[in-house]
Design goal:
This protein is mainly β. It has one domain. It has 1 helix and 9 strands.
C-alpha cells in the first residue's frame, strides 16, 4: 500500500488542475512549457532597507511540481523565470521573484511538495 498522504495530495492536486486552473506558459532562457496553474494573490509584510514594515503583493502561480519541465527536464522555479498569462487579448508577463526580505521565490503548496507556489511580479502588460 502506498503512502496515503502522498496519494491524497496527488488526488487533490489533480482536482485543482482540473477545476481551478488556467494554462500559462513558463519560460526560462528562451525555452518554454505550458502548464496548468492556479492563480492567486497574497500580501506579505516585509522590512524595507531601513527596517520599516511594508506590504508587498505577489501574484502567485500554483503548479504541479512534476509538470514544471524546462527542455523536458524536471526543474525547480528560478528567480528571473517568466510566466505568460493570456488575459482577454493581452499577454501579461510575470517575473519569478521573492516578495522581499529573506523569503524564497517559491514555496511548497502542500506538505508533500506535490505543487509549488511560485511568487511573481507583473512586469509587462
Amino acid at each position: 500500500m502506498g503512502d496515503a498522504l502522498q496519494n491524497a495530495a496527488a488526488w487533490l492536486d489533480g482536482k485543482r488542475k482540473a477545476h481551478l486552473s488556467r494554462t500559462v506558459v513558463y519560460e526560462r532562457d528562451g525555452r518554454s512549457v505550458e502548464v496548468k496553474a492556479t492563480i492567486g494573490r497574497k500580501a506579505y509584510e516585509v522590512a524595507d532597507s531601513y527596517g520599516a514594515s511594508v506590504w508587498v503583493e505577489s501574484t502567485d502561480f500554483i503548479v504541479t511540481a512534476a509538470d514544471l519541465r524546462v527542455a523536458g527536464v524536471r526543474t525547480l522555479p528560478e528567480a528571473g523565470d517568466r510566466i505568460r498569462l493570456e488575459v482577454g487579448d493581452e499577454t501579461c508577463v510575470y517575473e519569478v521573484m521573492a516578495p522581499g526580505g529573506r523569503m524564497s521565490h517559491y514555496t511548497a503548496a502542500d506538505p508533500q511538495a506535490t505543487a509549488w507556489r511560485i511568487h511573481t511580479k507583473l512586469v509587462r502588460r
